[in-house]
Amino acid sequence: MPMYYEWTSRKKSVLKKHEYPSFDVASHPLKVNVINVVKDSTSKILMENLNKWSSAFEEVDPLLRFEQMKQEEENSQTELQVDDVTNYKKSWNTRRSLILNKYTTGEKLSIVSSFLPGGEKLSSFSALFRQVSNLNEKVKHRLEQLDDFDKGSVRKTMGLSQQEFVTKINMLNDEIKKAWDSEQRVKAFKIGIQCSKLLSDVNVMQFYPSKFVLITDILDTFGVLVFDRLKGKSYKQNEVKDIKDIDPKSIPESAKETCQNWLFKMASIRELLPRLYMEMSLLKCYVFISKDEIKPAIARLTTMIRGIGNPLVALYLRLYLCRVASKLLGKESEEFFYSNLKEFLEEYQQIFHPMMKRKFETQLLTLDKYLNLYVPAVDWLLHGTLNSNKCKDTLLDELLQKCEDMENNELLLYCVVNAFDSTSITKKSSKILELVQKSAEKMVLVSDILTSLGEHLCSADNHRQLASEALIQTWWKLATIIKSTNHFLQVLEPWLQFACTHLSTQHVNIILRGTIRYMIKCGKPADEFSGNFHFVIKRMLKFIPDVEELFLMDAFMPLVELVQTSNARTMMAKTVLSIFFSRYTSVQIEDHIIISSLMRLCCILHDSINAVTVEDESKVCAELINKFVQAVTYEDDLEQQLNFYVECRSAFIKLDAVLIALVHAVNALATRAGARQGRWLQRACAAYCFVTVPSLHCALARAHLYLLSGQVALLNNCIGQAEANFKALVGLIPDIPEFLLEDGQKKPTNIKVGGILSDFLSTMLVMPDNVDSNCKAYILSGFIKMIERIHWKKTDPLYYNTLLHILDVLSAMTQENYAYHIDSVLSNDKLYGSEDEFLEAVDKHATNICQELLVVLKMLGDTKETKKQYNLALAMFWRVVTRGDLSRSAMLSLAANLWMLSQKLQDPNNNKMAKTMLAALASDNSPASQTLLKKLTENSTKQS
Amino acid sequence: MSTNLSINLKRASKVYHEGENIVGVVVVESSGDVRHEGLALLMEGSVNLQLSTKNVGIFEAFSNSIKPITLISTSIELAPPGKIPVGVTEIPFEMPLRARQAISPGYPGLLETYHGVFVNIMYTLKCSMKRSFLNKPLNAGCQFFVQYKQQDPAPLKPVRCEITPATIRAASSAGARAAIPQFQVYAEIDSTVCPLDKPLTGKIRVDECSVPIKSIELQLVRVETCGCAEGYSRDATEIQNIQVGAGDVCRARDVPLYMVLPRLFTCPTTTTHNFKIEFELNIAVIFEDDYLVTENFPILLLRSR
């Protein structure tokens, strides 16, 4: 096979003007659609979208189906909530975990039990039971045993940590089940009694609520065991019965008798507290005897709790009663919530009994911590009461009146404010503040009350009040006398939101100034409170109606920068920026004050980045700073804008992503500049880019930016700058690595490089040559040389595709009129006017490229990459046919040979591409193509 | 070859009233055929009295233990001598519960089942299977309970009382204690005539108390009197003690008194020729220094609605 073909490009006569269908449109089809998604329910929007796209299909889209299922589930859940019993169960469960999380202790606990390790006594104990066989004796024995637990076996385990205590309690829980399963029901009963006795111990008070939760769980277990056994005795196994379905009339006598026995046993417990707890745990067993007895029993228990002297123990007992009642009666239990609440209020002053005071003080508790122990229980009572009471306002009035009349009203006031709904509380807010003000001096839960009130005011958003100014003033007076800074900040959080949404900027500013004054006056560095402080700022940013206004307040930035440690400052800056940008509605920032404030924050953010910063972290920072860079605008003052970018470059030099954004921004600026501003600005922009790009780390990004900057420079007719950029790009190509690390994965760069290169090549068509140099198609020939120098694998598609594209450009360059131009730039067609010397040089390059391609073709054949070889052969064939001058014999034979090669590799009839090519060739009626066609058909017939 | 004998009553509660039939089955369970010389069922009820050592000397207490009073004793033959096949055999029976006809002086009739310290009233069914000689007879027993028929409710008899240092002094003129704390307690019992099936209720209120209270308790006491020609004893013992107030209860608030009367250990207040069973209630207020103040109420227990 002769291996040398001289390439001659065909001059195309005037291009055919195609008539394309066109119509007028109102907006550009490629314009970016800005959609403001109102975040209400993502799943709903998703559903709508999915619906829209899948409506055409008959089958339901699988994604849609999942979403539908999820929504149905949610719906069914909401339906279930109508059932009060489950409703109460749910709300208790949330409270339960809250209690367990909140009330913890590092103190040592003690547990009194005869059922925990210390095994030898235990076994003798149960053996004692087995010896007694006479029924009568047994009954007697049991009854006597119920109270005193065989004194010797009761042991007190002291010095338990909280975790150990919990483990012990869980052991008891297991023990109950074990005892029950091994027919030792009385033992289970005794464990229950012992557990409830533990609740009379208030020695480590701050753990009491959690202890209550743990122990009542055991009691619940016991209650369920008894209930299930009675149910098993009464009904067949699978005849699952809800409590509601159990009819006392249908209960067999034996089950009733067993139930009675349990109740008698319970009633003979000597001590009051365990008796009450056990009766509550067995309360639901009353259904087996008579349903009418439940309510009187609850009412009786309600009054019996009065006998408990310790207010904490009593209140939690009420909590358990109401919980059991709610489980049993649902909606109907609410009257008992109310009656228990009333009972509690009657005994309210017991909480402040000197004896209790002595107790909590010896445990080193402060009054507010002590009062906080009561909160979950009061809250639960109020929760149920509120559910029942239709007229909340009167109830609120009544309770507030009570608060007013009593001493030490803070606990009740706090719980009331916490439990009621926002609308009712908002109506009474001034009254509540007044109450607080009256006794603010000695009140301890002030901050909690104020916080809660503030939250209510915030959530009742559409409630516009005239008195909000007065409210804030009263509040501020109260807030400034709060001693603990943490509490102050905690209170500030909701009230600041309220101020932001209801008052003018000036007012908010005054509050901010006051805050700064308070923070300075408190004498401790603000860093100690950075967490709370953070929340305050976050809240304010989230809820101020217009975020921009924040920066216009003179107290805001000082407040933000009140924290001094770099960590806290970075956090703060990040929060402020991210919330600002998420809430900032317009695309551009014009205000100088805002710009400088944001610049300051961005600098803080940027300065926090160092060698050990993780990648994600700097990514987030870069994203925020990018948003800033992109949003800042100086309108028509382009010089100022460029200055800004220069400033940014020096400020954010550590972040590549920001630099990239800056280059893009400057390029955009350059194109915006136009001739009006004079060419110096465009040059300055080009220079900026050219200087900035080399400092990037990633070669690929650099290449891309060089190309872009070159194109922009070219667009602005800054040929020199464009040339410099392109030269730099060409020089950079060998440096582009084959793989890039992206998100922890190695990704090949060849597709991107291919894109950049073809983009570059198509730019080359309009790029005019430097007239000073002798070389024709200066940069392109440089590129070709570079390609030769790089040791790319020849069989790499990137390599031969690039060669094909070079071939395309070279053929396009020989045309008299180029396919496209840049208006102000004189391209080579005008520059040389199809001068022979130029054409020759170009064709020479083309011949070399063609030669190289043939080498590649051969190599592909050698490495048995038939498919690639076939495709390349066809592609080359097509280029020869469309771009080559077929009247030259070299070209003609090249085309024929390529076609033969491709035919050898694969039957052209099987390949659509080959067929289309042939058809296109046939439709072309120039004599050269006809000759070629003839030759091709001849060859194929010869072969067959 | 093993044979098991047991009595199962039809009524789960095992509580019967006079005039009712006791219905049940005797279950013979054996791994082989059982030959026997007759199967008999005996119903027995008796009052056991014991003199306490406190009132009469130890010697007398032992030697003079009073003869049990038989309340009922009937027997029936369940099966004539013969053979009972292998497996589980149930032999149903029915016995009327009726007081003895021949009235001896002092015979109290059928009394309620009662378990006390010095007086016990018990009813049992005993089944015995006589077997060929060399083999011991097989026995099985089963207790059942007798209750009076319910009477119409008696009129309530509420009592009220105030407990103050003054009332205490009046009671115990000894005045052993130097400083009695200042207190005023008001107590009320809804009725001293109590139906056995209903809880005993009332209320107590601490109006004033200068020292903290440790506990308020309700004590049920039985007073058993055994008397006959040879000796006489009267003893009060505690049946149960129920706490109604734990810790220093809130002042001037009614704390309910509530006590379920235990079964078996209580019965209607009974007076017979030979013995008496009476009940009392004590309200005890215990101060923190374990100083105890009690108030006693005799109560009348009835089997009524």
From TrEMBL, chain A:
Main location (coarse class): other
Cross-referenced InterPro entries: VPS35L (IPR029705)
Domain of life: Eukaryota
This protein's UniProt keywords: Endosome, Protein transport, Transport
Compartments where found: Endosome
Family affiliation: Belongs to the VPS35L family.
PANTHER family in the record: ESOPHAGEAL CANCER ASSOCIATED PROTEIN, VPS35 ENDOSOMAL PROTEIN-SORTING FACTOR-LIKE
Protein name from the UniProt record: VPS35 endosomal protein sorting factor-like
Record organism: Loxostege sticticalis
Lineage, highest ranks first: Eukaryota, Metazoa, Ecdysozoa, Arthropoda, Hexapoda
Automatic annotation (TrEMBL), chain B:
Keyword Cytoplasm attached: no
Subcellular localization, as worded in the UniProt entry: Endosome
One Gene Ontology cellular component: endosome
Keywords, in A-Z order: Endosome
Subunit text: Component of the commander complex that is essential for endosomal recycling of transmembrane cargos; the commander complex is composed of the CCC subcomplex and the retriever subcomplex. Component of the heterotrimeric retriever complex consisting of VPS26C, VPS29 and VPS35L; within the complex interacts with VPS35L. Interacts with SNX17 (via C-terminus); the interaction is direct and associates SNX17 with the retriever complex. Interacts with SNX31; the interaction is direct.
Chain's role: Component of the commander complex that is essential for endosomal recycling of transmembrane cargos; the commander complex is composed of the CCC subcomplex and the retriever subcomplex. Component of the retriever complex, which is a heterotrimeric complex related to retromer cargo-selective complex (CSC) and essential for retromer-independent retrieval and recycling of numerous cargos such as integrin alpha-5/beta-1 (ITGA5:ITGB1). The recruitment of the retriever complex to the endosomal membrane involves CCC and WASH complexes.
Similarity comment: family membership: Belongs to the VPS26 family.
Protein's recorded name: Vacuolar protein sorting-associated protein 26C
Provenance organism: Loxostege sticticalis (Beet webworm moth)
